[in-house]
Amino acid sequence: MTKFLSIELHETMARPGTEEDSLTEILMSRTNQELSEIDTFFSAYYGHTLISEIESDTVASNVVDQTSVQSDVISLYEGGPAMEGTLESTYIIIFSNRNFVHLNEVANLYEATYGTPLSDVVTTEFANVMGSALASILQYSRDKAVYFSSRFYTTIAGAGTAHRDLLRLTISRCETDLGNIKIAYQSLYGMSLSTAVTDDTSGSYQLALLALID
């Protein structure tokens, strides 16, 4: 899996126009240990570092400091909607230094306090790929299964299926949380993930995907 994801990252960045959604999906869904292994392999395989600042032995705690949550909520509001322009450094610091459980608490309290979803705030304050990336982080922190369901849907929907992304999603999630993703997909889109894949693929490629999904 480490080699597979390292090559996927390289190929994603090598293609014309970096695919930010794919980069976000791969990096965000890995643990610090997995990122460390990917970074080590990537450096040896390609001769340069992928992520030099990852602290591989850091384990995010699920214990949330409510005082810190409240402080972050106020900082995000004062650094965004409450002022003209956006204090981007505030958002970057909070989103890059807080674990997913903490960010979910921040998002819940922000909406309860100010009446606006934090995901709407970041896409308004950052009218570019940064806003989309921050919104993806929030969605992932709230419900991983829903996040990956939307990634599967985006990959399959439209005029042409993004087969490389579909293959990566299936392989990388089949041994972890694909069962939960399938339930979320059915609930969100009114059809099973297997049906969606069957409708958009064929041949031995289809059979291989369905074997992993089912």
Offer a concise description of the structure:
The protein has helices at 2-14, 20-28, 32-46, 66-78, 88-97, 100-114, 118-125, 129-142, 144-156, 163-173, 178-189, 193-200, 203-213.
Structure description:
By secondary structure, the chain is mainly alpha-helical. It has three domains: 2-46; 66-142, Annexin (Annexin V, domain 1, Orthogonal Bundle), CATH 1.10.220.10; 144-213, Annexin (Annexin V, domain 1), CATH 1.10.220.10. The chain is 71% helix and 0% strand. The protein contains 13 helices and no strands. It has helices spanning 2-14, 20-28, 32-46, 66-78, 88-97, 100-114, 118-125, 129-142, 144-156, 163-173, 178-189, 193-200, 203-213. The longest helix has 15 residues, at 32-46. The two termini are 20 Å apart. Mean pLDDT is 84; it is low at 51-61. Pfam families: Annexin. Keywords: Annexin, Repeat. This is Annexin.
Q: Can you tag this structure with a few keywords?
A:
mainly alpha; globular; Annexin V, domain 1; 13 helices; 214 residues
